[in-house]
Write a structure and sequence with these properties.
Chain lengths: ~110, ~120
């Protein structure tokens, strides 16, 4: 079955840049989406279609794509950005949605 | 304003059944695919199932295929998940989510419900 691979954890100091990667063979063919989830809350979409930012999401969140890897970048990380981040995409046929295992972002 | 409200969760014994519902409002329900996504305690997100806006196409994760059935009633703006032959590993918070397009199987979840907890235990 299709899988998306994320690092389990990323740590940065406030004001620095955090980069979270997600790898999958079908990413050149399917869009990627990124979700932020804080404890006890439902996920929130922060990036859609690889690099688009929904309204209401701060400009410090951005997304990029290169081959089989997509990257979520958070510039000028703030304490409130500490959360779990999940990438999501679909298999090449568009019949199966897949989430990455999640990355815990720690703001030191 | 888009709202998704799940209900139907609870405690069920292994091998038992449960039906989850998700009441939707604030958008043209029949125009969008809908999905169920679950999260086991302390674990990551797992996609469970999706259904197209018309209800004519359904999609399932291998882990639930043959045991769970997704359906929708567009006249009632409600999504359902019938869960049979439940196992301990099905214990999770179940979220309904609005897809970004009419066909399922792609994701793009800008809207989520608050989730309903399903516990499978004897």
């Amino acid at each position: 079955s299709y899988e998306l691979t994320q690092p389990p954890s990323v740590s940065v100091s406030p004001g620095q840049t955090a980069r979270i990667t997600c790898s999958g063979d079908a990413l050149p063919k399917q869009y990627a989406y990124w979700y932020q989830q804080k404890p006890g809350q439902a996920p929130v979409l922060v990036i859609y279609k690889d690099s688009e930012r929904p309204s209401g999401i701060p400009e410090r969140f951005s997304g990029s794509s290169s081959g089989t890897t997509v990257t979520l970048t958070i510039s000028g990380v703030q304490a409130e950005d500490e959360a779990d981040y999940y990438c999501q995409s679909a298999d090449s046929s568009g019949t199966c949605v897949v989430f990455g295992g999640g990355t815990k972002l720690t703001v030191l | 304003e888009v709202q998704l409200v799940e209900s139907g969760g609870g405690l069920v014994q292994p091998g038992g059944s449960l039906r989850l519902s998700c009441a939707a409002s604030g958008f043209t329900f029949s125009s969008y695919a809908m999905s169920w996504v679950r999260q086991a305690p302390g674990k990551g997100l797992e996609w469970v199932s999706a259904i197209s806006g018309s209800g004519g196409s359904t999609y399932y994760a291998d882990s639930v295929k043959g045991r769970f059935t997704i359906s929708r009633d567009n006249s009632k703006n409600t999504l359902y998940l019938q869960m049979n032959s439940l196992r301990a590993e099905d214990t999770a918070v179940y979220y309904c989510a609005k897809d970004g397009r009419g066909t399922g199987g792609y994701g793009d979840y800008a809207y989520w419900g608050q989730g309903t907890l399903v516990t499978v235990s004897s």
